[in-house]
Write a structure and sequence with these properties.
The protein is of the alpha+beta class and about 600 residues long. Among the domains are: about 20-175 and about 180-190, Chitobiase, domain 2, CATH 3.30.379.10; about 260-365, Sandwich (Immunoglobulin-like); about 370-500, Immunoglobulins (Immunoglobulin-like, Sandwich), CATH 2.60.40. Helix content is about 15%, strand content about 30%. The protein is built from six helices and 25 strands. The protein has helices at about 1-15, 45-50, 85-90, 125-135, 555-590, 595-600; strands spanning about 30-35, 60-65, 75-80, 105-110, 115-120, 145-150, 155-165, 185-190, 260, 275-285, 295-300, 305-310, 320-330, 345-355, 360-365, 370-380, 385, 395-400, 400-410, 425-435, 440, 445-450, 450-460, 470-480, 485-500. The strands form five sheets. Strands 2-1-3-5-4-6-7-8 form an eight-stranded mixed β-sheet, sandwiched between helices. A five-stranded antiparallel β-sheet has the order 17-16-19-23-21, with no helix packed on it. The radius of gyration is 51 Å and the shape is elongated.
Length: about 600
Amino acid sequence: MNKLFIFLAFLIALPAVMAADLSTYPSYFTDVNVIVNENGADLGSALSITNSFQNTGITAQIRPANELAGPSGLQIISVGQNTVTTALLNTATGWYALKAGEAHIALFELGGQVQIAAYGTTSADTAKAVYVLTHKNDFPLKYKEIVVSGTAPNYVLYNVITHLDYGCGGTQGINPDGSWPTPCVKKELEQYLPDPNPVPPVVPPVVPPVVPPIVPPVVPPVVPPVVPPVVPPVVPPVVPPVVPPVVPPAVPLTPGASFTVSTINVLGDDHQDRGKNVSTTAVLTNTGTVALSGFTFSGITSKYNMTITGFPSSLAPSQTATVTITTTVPFDHSAVDTDCDDNPLSIGTLAVNTAQGATTTQSIKMQAVNELRILDVFAVIAGERKRVLETKLLDVYQDDDVELQVELKNRFSTDNDEDGQDQDIDVEVTVEGDTDELDLDENDDVEIGADDEETATLSGTVEDDARGNMKFVVTAEGKDDKGAKHCDQTIVKFNVIEGTRAAIRPVGTAPTFTPAPVTRAPTQTVQQPPTVEPREERVERTPVAPVATSFRQSKGYVALLVGMLVLMLAVIAAEVAFIVQRRRQALQDSVEFPQESQNFTQE
């Protein structure tokens, strides 16, 4: 029985004593520090490491090496040659001496945490080690030390094998006193390949020991004494000091390093469903005079799951390369902007960087389908229901009661969200416009289920001083269960007829007549009135002047005749006055010039 307990204790403690290796990378990390030289070298490789942890639940931050007093007790990936890498290597002896074109990946366990050093003799060699770590699914990672050689992406991995040589610096065989000579440590390389048929270790079944049930003794209940409650003293909360975030030093720009990225098209369109992937392409162009490498990107939040494939390992001057950008349209991405227009919305600024310090940025926009629609609008005016068209004016009278019925549609299909549930939309319908002329309700709220329709109602009264035309913008705006915004708008126009409906007689109504008083013949009063035959009473009505049926019978025709007569009399009077004036002038001339008048007569 004791042996069985010892065996069980061994199985329980086995995971705690098993040493980590690279085969389980990066499962032993939760909050890792990616270390680079404080002069900015290998920053591009460090950014590749941090980008590889997106959507993994592992938090990664870049820190310069001179901030750390030592690597022990910290989760670390030290990139390139720096003081932290040197401190890690100094914890062991006999490291394999790297050659040009090789990179080294080594795992350490200091202070209960895991540290990894990924470095090479140059930054280009360091990038090889980083490439293997960021593409761990493409390489058979195992052991605690790996040497990487070759060119991307066909890197060759080697295992570092340790040998103890008892002839190194001593004599072969056992010492004269019977002890072994002091060995020297050598490390050599041996290429390894993935195991095509890994066999899981055989773990013997754990048989629980048979333990007789323990019957607890009967203990009388202990009644605790009544103790007054202890009120803890009020301690003010401890506010941690505000520590500014650590900003990694900028990579120094290599002279002649520059490049451009072609304009990236809008991701998605007004028919794009959420929860789906969208892709587009962009062209990188080396516009400088030096080769570029170590391309990385940042700036877009993790919820968009952005990936960029096709980055070249090296891009020569004037050379181009096409990359593919793929993202996921999240379920909370709104379909419209603040003005209710179906426009693409910005999701961030994409930054593309290189190991040579050259960088470029570009705003990225995404669009998704708008699932809310105004199907129809009806206006109920004084009890009469009419369809509303944006190009048509509807007649209303002052003091008319008006009701707008807005029919709405949720175009989400059922089971259309990430959890397979229906997407409801909470909608608020509002009206903006000549509200001083038509006192409408401010809003109405409705909830519309997926692939369903609802009607919002707004009512009001035309003001008694309303005039002319009135125009209103009806807006239906709502959010779905994931927080995405949807919206639609339409226009309603009215023509106000001055006066109330009751006071204005509609055109075509026949005139009304007042009946004349009834005239009856006088009767004589007798004691016994004679029997007379009943007669039909007649009601005499006041005759109505006939309505003029032609222009000649109208008052306008008479006025025209009178005007013409007056004009003729005026013309005759003017002619008479002219003749009288001539005769007066002739008489005056005969008096002043008699001789000339006589000669004129003789002639």
